[in-house]
Amino acid sequence: MDKMTPAMRQYYEAKEKHKDALIFFRMGDFYESFGDDARIIAKELDITLTRRGRDREGVDMPLAGIPYHAVDSYLPRLIRKGYKVAICEQLEDPKNAKGIVKRGVVRVITPGTVIDSSLIAGEANNYLMSISGNELEFGLSFLDVSTGEFLTTQFTDNQDYDRIISEAARMRPAECILPSSLFENKKLHDRLKDLGATLNIFDTDAFDPKTAYQDLIAHFGVMTLEGMGCEKLPLAISSSGAALEYARTTQMRDLAHIQSIRTYFENEFMVLDSITLRNLEIIQGLRNNLRDSLRDRSHGSSLLEVIDHTKTPMGGRLLHKMLLKPLISVILLTERLDAVDEIVKKTLLRYDLRSHLSQIRDIERLIGRVVYGNSNARDLIALSLSLAALPRIIKATGENDIKSGLLLDIIQRLGDFTDIVALLERAIVDDPPVSLRDGGIIKEGYNEKLDELKKLSSHGKGWIAEMQQHERERTGIKSLKIGYNSVFGYYIEVTKPNLSQVPQDYIRKQTTANGERFYTPALKEKEVMILSADERGKALELELFNEINSSIASRSKELQTTAQAIGELDVIANLAEVAVNNRYTRPEVNDNCNILIRDGRHPVVERSVPPGFVPNDIRMDCQEHQFLLITGPNMAGKSTYMRQTALIIILAQMGSFVPASYASVGVVDRIFTRVGAFDDLASGQSTFMIEMVELANILNNATPRSLILLDEIGRGTSTYDGYSIARAVVEFIHNKDNAGVRSLFATHYHQLTATEGVLRRVKNYHIAVKEEGGDLVFLRKIVPGATDRSYGIHVAKLAGVPPKVIQRAKEILKEVENGSAISKGKEAKYTQLMLFDPGDANTNAKESPVIEELKNLNLDEMTPLDALNTLSALKRKTAGG
Predict the structure, then answer these.
(1) Distance of alpha carbon 96 from alpha carbon 26, whole angstroms
(2) How far apart, in whole angstroms, are the C-alpha atoms of residue 668 and residue 591?
(3) What are the residues whose beta carbons fall under 8 Å from the beta carbon of 463, sequence distance 6 or more?
(4) Known PANTHER family for this protein (predicted)?
(5) Residue 396 among known ligand-binding residues
């Protein structure tokens, strides 16, 4: 270390304090990195790796650098790959430094704490997630440093951490911090890693509930956290305190724009777990990259992409959250639907609102940068234009006799910022430069002293131009010119052929390849005057800008309230626009158990069906139509029908109009789905195992207020095992908690349709098809009753399976239908079991001891795992084992 240069000693001191970060070390006009950092940066940024000097061991030092003015184009590439970057800046002007320039880390940039607009992908929230807990009790917090939004909750989870994963899947954090005890939990670590977040260990002491509590009340300036809802939630407090401390540690300043925490609970919203979000394609289509920007609507393959036509970033973020957290309060839903309904009916108001809202920029993030202290003049212009739209919005609503209580409340929260708009219009030039240090940001007339300095500098530069013309005439050197650079100041440049004509009063200053540079006492005097005025002017402009910025920062709480109100208004106007354009209707939402939808449509699929989407009805209740058993061929539309039902309910409970001619929805507390096939072979889980794990979660957690969508349960194993599991599942759901659960169950096991006569709340439906000359026509219409055919061979034909295979399949099917054995081996012994219906009183149960044992099973008290174990034992018996 003693052999190091002073600058390298500074570098290693910074690296010692920030071992897990890449160091960007400011050296003149470059940010330089050394050693292993340089190797990583060169590889990730695809820049040249060079060498300079030697490291502490005397080995050649790897070096990689980027221009400091281009840092905004390089940093995002590192941050999005999960790296931390510590910015080690020059802390004094090199011109005034005595010896080595002082340097120090001014902030650490991490994926979850970025605040610069260039580092944030799109307009979606950029959350830092913090997790604290012990055994199965956990606290979760989500902090968006760029907007100041801060959320927390506390709950009991299961051993697979499904609740944590569901929350993480909804919120999509860019980074997650955990104490070492949780970070080292392999199952939790791996499941979080699969979601794409960067995981980091943070100081365990920061998670201490007492420390966290004191930190939070000090930051918010309160005596208690009672008003924020988390006073008696120690793990929520623990995770919140750690999140705030981590953000403060990385940003290295007090984050005054983070002004409150909102505590939320599961019973406030419909629960949509990670599996349901995936299967229903609520936020992104299954074929889309999960990390795509939420504002990329090019594919139109998700529900969010269909309904998000918001005009402001605040509205876009709020709509995203509302879609992931549908309400279960009928009162709140009615208020929201009333507001949307009013804007639907007032066409001119809707047009005016959306037109004015389109002028508003990201006020939440602009305020974050203002309070943080890294805003520039363009940010203030954007804020001014945004706030200038508020009076027009208030005027438009005032002229339309608003009735909705929610809309009236929103308008009252918009605030009056005419003084800020007037200040910014008077102070900041209309098209300011990006950098604050280059001057040219303050308007003429705002500050008298600044005007004088600008005038002095401007006149001085005019004098320079006059001097150049005068010297050309005096010396006869037509090519003579007066130039300037930051090292040598002003100079008179004469080319070599004209050096003989140089006057005696010229003083040599520098020799160049093409000639000589000179100065005169008069030129030197003007240089001092011009540069002094220019530098003092730039310094004064920066001082004035900071004063303006501080005055706006003092109104941050009011501005954040206004930003939230704008987001709410934008969402309501957006939902009204979507309702009109997509022919959606207002749903009725109530607390009973009934679901009735007339002419329901799939909001995503209907946009891509050329001839027109075929609408369908659905009727569900908790008496006779609680469990709908749906049969029909593949490709006929069973899955679409099930999904559209769930999506219509989600839209209704987020307060949106829905794609139907009529809809009445009894509030659903949770939607469970099991559709499609996904392997996870890397962790040793096959398609069938994943199916059973997801099924177990559904059966264990569904309530009478839930909605279950099950598609082809049991198809991942043998026909006989699969049918048996499917039958047991139907009975379990029907009888769960002596009340059953509203369910849609699509299946190819036609034997299950016999349950309609045995289980009173089961009703059969099927997708209608028509055969024309041996061809199959899908009518896409769901009708009452069961189908006795799968039409699998027809579908295979449509898919292009060779004719020989199709013909042979038809021959085999005919043999099976005529009662021929499928095989002579062990499978033949299962034929009778497959066809047996426990609800059929005429069946001769004495023909098989296995059947007798099945009849004596108490299915109501069996868990899914018990059912699987029992089936395995029965299989061994029938196989002679």
Answers:
(1) 17
(2) 9
(3) 526
(4) DNA MISMATCH REPAIR PROTEIN MSH1, MITOCHONDRIAL, DNA MISMATCH REPAIR PROTEIN MUTS FAMILY MEMBER
(5) no
Task: Say yes or no: 777 and 859 in one domain.
Answer: yes
Q: From edge to edge, which strands make up the β-sheet containing 22-27?
A: 50-54, 60-67, 30-34, 22-27, 85-90, 103-109
Are the C-beta atoms of 537 and 454 separated by less than 8 Å?
A: yes
Confirm whether 315 is domain-assigned: no
Residue where one domain finishes, among candidates 62, 89, 109: 109
Q: What is the CATH number of the domain that holds 56?
A: 3.40.1170.10
What are the DSSP calls for 852-864, one per residue?
HHHHT--GGG--H
Beta-ladder partners of 673: 709
The single-letter code of the amino acid at 204 is: T
Task: Specify if 163 maps to a domain.
Answer: yes
DSSP 64: E
243 known ligand binder: no
78-121 pLDDT per residue, tens? 998 889 999 998 887 776 667 788 889 988 999 999 888 777 87
Longest dimension (CA), the chain: 129
**CATH number for the domain that contains residue 545:** 1.10.1420.10
Mapping DSSP onto H, E and C, the string for 332-374 reads HHHHHHHHHHHHHHCHHHHHHHHHHHCCCCCHHHHHHHHHHCC
DSSP state of 378: H
447 with 464: CB under 8 angstroms? no
Three-class DSSP category at 69: helix
Report the amino acid identity of residue 238: S
Beta bridge partners of 674: 710
Task: Give the structural domain span for 194.
Answer: 121-268
With DSSP H G I counted as helix, E B as strand and the rest as coil, what are the percentages for the chain, rounded to 5?
50, 20, 35
Indicate if 745 and 704 belong to the same structural domain.
Answer: yes
Q: Return d(Cα 656, Cα 584) in angstroms, integer.
A: 9
pLDDT in tens, 194-221: 888 899 999 889 999 999 999 999 999 9
Give helix 405-412 / helix 556-582 axis angle, nearest 10°.
Answer: 140
Number of domains the chain contains: 4
* Angle, CA 46 vertex, CA 40 and CA 49 arms, to 5°: 60
Q: Is 636 annotated among the ligand-binding residues?
A: yes
* Contact in structure between 8 and 34 (CB atoms under 8 Å): yes
Confirm whether 834 is domain-assigned.
Answer: yes
Q: Does 633 carry a binding-site annotation?
A: yes
What totals of helices (H) and strands (E) does the chain contain, helices first?
29, 27
Helix or strand holding residue 680 (H, E): none
- Chosen domain end from 80, 109, 138: 109
| Whether residue 98 is found in the same domain as residue 125 | no
Do 143 and 81 share a structural domain?
no
The angle that helices 313-324 and 638-654 make with each other, rounded to 10 degrees, is: 120
Asked if residue 383 belongs to a domain, the reply is no
Residues 657 and 533 in one domain: no
Quote the CA–CA distance of 602 and 648 in Å, as a whole number. Answer: 8
Is 168 known as a binding-site position? no
Residues 44 and 193 in one domain: no
Query: Domain containing 255 — which CATH number?
Result: 3.30.420.110
Looking at residues 368-383, what average pLDDT do you find? Answer: 93
Q: What is the pLDDT of residues 679-730, one digit of tens each?
A: 444 444 566 777 787 888 898 889 999 999 998 887 767 677 888 888 999 9
Residues 704 and 822 in one domain: yes
Residues 105, 132, single domain; the answer is no
